């Protein structure tokens, strides 16, 4: 295996790390070397570490596992595929997003997010897993406005009416963030409109006075124009990651 000089220095540091560094805490364990390798897309380092006995499923760092950080960082054919090849637990719970598939749905690029989600689903990821707050991959995709990701999730069995621990649905997330196309797609696929509450906050009066409405307010109004029933108000600010 060819390893460039820079990567070789990583290997030496990794070897020393594995022999001498052992900081552990229940949830916020220090990031491991293989975690950093995945974060930066160093496939050769990952191969070297695993060939020298490093556990691909060891935990540490903000995203918890090698697979979750690779999924969120947006590496498809490179790191994610390699990590899965070496036996990464695709449904391992932990880290910032809770599960790799949720992290993939939260990735900034819609096209890359779709690729990652498809890859993880085809590799056995549970599409309806929820993190500690009850948020699923569908929640995050709806929040980001990733319409094609939302479609992929729904086509593969994601529950359109799933609610977080505080009662927030993917439709809430889409409306709050002004993602009208996603909200319409969700409703076309069974999302219950009765779950959609009109999102208001303290700035609404000022926005109206200045003749401007924020995206989440305008999308809520548009959705409500098709339904005469008013269900109340809800502030979901604390449900955002």
From TrEMBL:
It holds the Pfam family Ank_2. ANK repeats lie at residues 65-95, 97-132, 133-165, 166-191. InterPro entries: Ankyrin_rpt, Ankyrin_rpt-contain_sf. PANTHER family: ANKYRIN REPEAT AND PROTEIN KINASE DOMAIN-CONTAINING PROTEIN, INVERSIN-A. Transmembrane segments: none annotated. Keywords: ANK repeat, Repeat. This is NACHT domain protein. The keyword Repeat applies. It comes from the Eukaryota.
